[in-house]
Design brief:
Order of helices and strands: EEHEHEHEHEHEHEHEHEHEHEE
Strand order of the largest sheet: 3-2-4-5-6-12
Oligomer: single chain
Helix content: 25-40%
CATH architecture of the largest domain: 3-Layer(aba) Sandwich
CATH class of the largest domain: Alpha Beta
Number of domains: 2
Number of helices: 10
Distance between the termini: 6 Å
Shape: elongated
Structural class: alpha/beta
CATH superfamily of the largest domain: Response regulator
Largest sheet: 6 strands, parallel
Radius of gyration: 20 Å
Length: about 300
């Protein structure tokens, strides 16, 4: 079952290594922009899906632009992502569509990109507004309302629980804006339903880390009834921890992203719900925004993209 959340449009518009892929053609033709996609961890199925969606879009619009696709090894490899942006500047791309691993750490290098005349579009994880302001930057964000999406997922969970039940949150990287927003959305729904949040810990977006965190939460809180995970990678780790603790069917789990690997768990009830932010289209939304701005010389503006709740 899929539930569509309201959309607000502000304007119309696997990969084994972190090294950039080759441009989609040998050389950009005169007047044909070269767009770089810089993502987070390519070990995460979500970003592999994002990359594949972008490549498919470029193949269908090969006469309109060239594309360079790249990403980092893991969610916290900030220096590598900074280096990738610097490489894209040196390669003379006209636009960078970036899913930053950290909401603040990438702003300095993105300012260098802007100063070099490169259009920057922010996707997936929103850059910190105050840090952008301090740097004198205006970078548009093209992406979903993570707080609303997480709240909607948690509201599905709330219907399965009773007021006063104990729950725990496994959040993403704490300095990532999308992780902060998803945590806030979970909290919104749980507080409104009268649940007791007994623990909030970071799984750093990763399955193994979340498995360890979930195991600790279950051991320390034997009455916990649900684990709210800020992405599906962590939900997979949490589900394994619940199984290992002998609590299958006793502890509900929700996630975020609707990756392919979560679908069997949704089908058999090991995961109750997730949010689909259309990973195969997220980079495409950013690329299309960049192409429109480059073509029409319009002022960059934010754009809110779809997010849906998915259950069994």
């Amino acid at each position: 079952m899929t539930i569509r959340l309201p959309l607000l449009l502000a304007f119309a518009i696997s990969l084994p290594a972190c090294k950039p892929s080759a441009p989609s053609s040998n050389a950009s033709a005169a007047g044909k922009p070269k767009v770089a996609l810089v993502m987070k961890s390519l070990a995460n199925e979500f970003f592999q899906t994002m990359a594949n969606g972008a490549k498919k879009h470029q193949a269908e619009h090969a006469a309109e632009y060239d594309l360079i696709v790249n990403g980092i090894k893991n969610e916290t490899d900030l220096a590598e992502q900074v280096g990738l942006v610097e490489q894209m500047i040196s390669q003379g791309v006209q636009a960078i569509v970036v899913a930053p691993a950290d909401s603040k750490a990438l702003i300095t290098v993105l300012k260098r990109a802007k100063d070099a005349g490169v259009l920057v579009i922010n996707i997936d994880n929103k850059l910190d507004a105050d840090t952008l302001k301090q740097a004198g930057l205006a970078i548009p964000f093209v992406g979903p309302d993570n707080r609303a999406g997480a709240k909607a997922v948690a509201e599905v969970l709330a219907k399965k629980l009773n007021a006063g039940d104990e729950v725990a949150i496994i959040e993403g990287v704490t300095t990532a804006f999308n992780g902060q927003q998803r945590r806030a959305g979970f909290e919104d729904a749980m507080n409104a339903a009268g649940m007791k949040i007994v623990s909030t810990q970071s799984g750093q977006w990763e399955m193994d880390k979340a498995n360890t965190v979930a195991s600790g939460i279950l051991a320390a809180n034997p009455n916990v009834k649900a684990l709210l995970c800020a992405n599906d990678n962590m939900a997979l780790g949490a589900a394994a921890a619940v199984q290992a603790a002998g609590k299958a069917g006793q502890v509900q789990i929700v996630g975020f992203d609707n990756i392919a690997a979560i679908k069997p768990l949704l089908a058999d009830g090991r995961v109750l719900a997730t949010a689909d932010q259309h990973g195969d289209q997220l980079a495409v939304f950013g690329i299309e925004a960049a192409l429109k701005i480059l073509k029409d010389k319009t002022t960059p503006e934010d754009q809110q993209t779809p997010v849906d709740v998915v259950t069994k």
